[in-house]
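Supplementary Methods. Inverse-folding protocol.

Structures were first reduced to a discrete structure-token string of length 362. This string, shown here, constituted the complete conditioning input.
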């Protein structure tokens, strides 16, 4: 049996037309159930589902009052679904129900672990009228997720997979609105088939995509990068934050010097402020597993690590310039090697000591 999971929030106007399209596409050949997972809309969604149940349509409604979010709603629906094949689709009819039989055929004939209704393969597309902002938002989101998957439409919300694949998931922790990426990274989806679809604009209701959801998407990507690439992902984040600290250092130094402070005092304060700047995003992003631990001892360990790292940087630079005649004449290259060594030292000690709870938690 096919279980169709549809997350909803204030989508009452779409319930009946969506079910009509699903019934037309599947009945009587394909046994199915529709599981609506509603985030306590209080907009009449429950009445619509009750009407359908009275007509004998195989629909169910799960109302959540303790949490909200598209990905977690899909996860709840998948967990409570009864079918041996699980399908996710949006409630706004942007996904064509008519494509479901073809997706099921692809699952069987291609022996796929996952089938995606894709906008970005040959034959797929979107309805005319998408503005530049929507195009850019979609393409940037897919570009950011590209290292995680080779699937062309990794941000799709229309996909199906066998229950046996879903039940082999590991460490699921989805947030935001891109549940498919969680499935691709944390389920054993070795073979993925993409079926072209024409993505349509919603006819009723309002889009739930807002700035908050976009921030959650970035946080979700960060989690998936950490999961898939481990220390490499954290090191890249550490370097990016360090680069921002260099900018802060220089700006603060210039500002304090203009205020009349001596160069030595201004640069000392600039270094301290830059280290503090680096500490905050490293605590809450790079080493986010430690975000609930006491700040002061962790901060002091981080500052000490940075100071020792600065000594490593200086020692390597001076040693190379002294020992190598070529580097002695090209001191900036020696300084670059020193920066690299100091950064690697800072990261390793931060990971193992300054933010040591990360190592224990992992």
């Amino acid at each position: 049996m096919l279980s169709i999971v549809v997350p909803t929030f204030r989508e009452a106007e779409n319930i009946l037309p969506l079910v009509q399209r699903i019934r037309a596409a599947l009945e009587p050949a394909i046994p199915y159930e529709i599981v609506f997972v509603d985030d306590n809309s209080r907009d009449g969604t429950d009445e619509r589902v009750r009407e359908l149940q009275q007509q004998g349509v195989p629909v169910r409604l799960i109302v959540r009052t303790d949490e909200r979010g598209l990905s977690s709603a899909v996860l709840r629906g998948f967990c409570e679904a009864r079918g041996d094949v699980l399908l996710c689709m949006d409630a706004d009819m942007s996904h064509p129900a008519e494509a479901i039989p073809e997706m099921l055929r692809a699952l069987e004939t291609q022996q796929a672990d996952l089938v995606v209704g894709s906008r970005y393969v040959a034959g797929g597309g979107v309805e005319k009228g998408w503005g530049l902002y929507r195009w850019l938002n979609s393409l940037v989101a897919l570009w950011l997720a590209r290292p995680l998957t080779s699937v062309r439409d990794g941000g799709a919300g229309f996909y199906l997979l066998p229950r046996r694949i879903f039940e082999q998931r590991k460490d699921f922790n989805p947030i935001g609105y891109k549940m498919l990426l969680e499935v691709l990274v944390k389920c054993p989806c070795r073979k993925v088939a993409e079926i072209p679809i024409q993505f349509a604009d919603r006819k009723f209701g309002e889009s739930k995509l807002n700035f908050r959801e976009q921030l959650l998407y970035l946080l979700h990507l960060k989690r998936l990068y950490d999961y898939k690439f481990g220390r490499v992902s954290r090191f890249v984040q550490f370097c990016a934050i360090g680069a921002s600290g260099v900018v802060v250092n220089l700006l603060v130094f210039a500002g304090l010097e203009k205020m009349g402070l001596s160069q030595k005092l201004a640069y000392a304060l600039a270094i301290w402020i830059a280290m503090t700047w680096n500490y905050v995003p490293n605590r809450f992003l790079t080493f986010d597993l430690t975000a609930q631990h006491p700040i002061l001892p962790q901060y002091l360990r981080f500052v000490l690590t940075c100071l020792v790292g600065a000594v490593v940087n200086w020692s390597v630079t001076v040693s190379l310039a002294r020992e190598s005649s070529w580097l002695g004449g090209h001191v900036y290259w020696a300084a670059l090697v020193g920066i690299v060594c100091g950064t690697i030292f800072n990261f390793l000690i931060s990971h193992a000591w300054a933010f040591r709870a990360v190592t224990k938690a992992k």
